[in-house]
Task: inverse folding
């Protein structure tokens, strides 16, 4: 690990999750890259604070195989724009497989 580059997470078997959050720390725009290996996949991306409160969530259905990016604008997302600096959780659920990653917001 280390190095300050993107952080990757992978599931053990079956559907491979290849989730990358960048930049981290983030000041305005958080990118969430993920890879879909099954056609017609369902993707749910949720952002939580460290108290476990859901701040925002986005759902995408019928996603084709390949690489995809979700871009979260922290300055325009109403539920996040007024929140101070801190550590947050990004949970990516693809067809029931879940990966959760921390990111630091520094506005």
Result:
């Amino acid at each position: 690990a280390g190095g300050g580059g993107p952080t990757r997470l992978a599931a053990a078997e079956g559907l491979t999750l290849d989730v990358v959050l960048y930049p981290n720390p983030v000041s305005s725009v958080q990118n969430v890259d993920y890879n879909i290996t099954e056609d017609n996949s369902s993707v749910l991306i949720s952002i939580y604070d460290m108290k476990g409160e859901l701040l925002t969530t986005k759902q995408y259905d019928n996603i084709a195989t390949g690489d995809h990016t979700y871009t979260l604008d922290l300055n325009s997302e109403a539920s996040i724009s007024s929140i101070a600096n801190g550590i947050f959780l990004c949970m990516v659920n693809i067809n029931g497989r879940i990966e959760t990653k921390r990111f630091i917001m520094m506005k």
User: Anything to note?
Assistant: Residues 7-15 have pLDDT under 50 and may be disordered. Residues 78-81 form the longest helix (4 residues).
